[in-house]
Amino acid sequence: MSATLAPSPTEAPALAPRERETLRHIAAGRTYLQTARHMGLSTHTVDAYLRRIRAKFDITNTAELTRVAIALGL
After folding, report:
1. Alpha helices, DSSP H only, in 6-42?
2. pLDDT tens-digit profile of 25-67?
3. Whole-angstrom Cα distance, residue 74 to residue 66?
4. Domain architecture of the chain: domains with CATH
């Protein structure tokens, strides 16, 4: 688990619109498959978006993804 807190929106790395949408769905508790179907994507694309988000924020799990989503107001 990362020792850092979620960054404030002004310090946050830039996310592409589809990355933001994907993060919003996952933080809302949807599965990769549900997110993919809602966005019209494959589960592999959803996974790729989430890997990029994790790399940008240096986080490793879904709880941290959710914390970032809340900090960003998603």
Report:
1. 17-27, 32-39
2. 999 999 999 999 999 999 999 999 999 999 999 999 888 988 9
3. 9
4. 17-72 (1.10.10.10)
